[in-house]
Specification:
Length: about 170
């Protein structure tokens, strides 16, 4: 794949994947209003033009908020392709942020990020299945506190492991 072609393909992914994720709510039975479709498209185009800008966070938050607000019935299998679309946009933006538009993207870097994105996506069906399994169960007392503590512990453990791997804070 030629470098210029690949960067344009990545820009199209960044621009249109959030819109695809938003439109997945129509499959779930609750289509997005027209103004939101236009907003997501404009933010996606801005993100494609400036992959390191705040437009990326804004468009992802807009889509996720609509999924939360628009679907009052709860879980729907259409969340899985929506997650894939948002993840594809994120990975494409990461690749675009490696340098200026004329930068040639090498194959190993491209495939590294594709593998990383695919491995992250593996969690989506697992989390979805778990959510479907427990959705009719009453929430135990303190569930949110335990979940927050577990998330903080995981972040701390990951930070310590990465710091050791990168030699941060280690005398040489």
């Amino acid at each position: 794949m030629r470098a210029r072609t690949s960067t344009w393909v990545l820009r199209v992914l960044v621009a249109l994947s959030p819109l695809a994720a938003l439109l997945c709510t129509a499959g779930a039975g609750e289509g997005a209003p027209g103004w939101l479709v236009v907003l997501v498209l404009v933010l996606g185009l801005g993100w494609a033009a400036f992959p390191e800008s705040v437009a990326g966070a804004a468009v992802i938050v807009a889509v996720i908020v609509w999924w939360g607000v628009g679907l009052r019935e709860g879980l729907d299998v259409w969340a899985l392709p929506a997650a894939a679309a948002l993840l594809a946009a994120h990975v494409a933006a990461v690749l675009l942020s490696y340098g200026p538009p004329q930068l040639q993207l090498d194959g190993p870097t491209f495939w590294l990020w594709v593998r990383r994105g695919a491995s992250v996506y593996l969690a989506a069906p697992l989390v979805f299945g778990l959510a479907v399994w427990v959705r009719d169960q009453p929430a135990p007392d303190g569930m949110w506190a335990v979940g927050l503590a577990a998330a903080l512990a995981a972040m701390l453990a990951a930070s310590v492991m990465l710091a050791r791997r990168d030699g941060v804070g280690v005398e040489r």
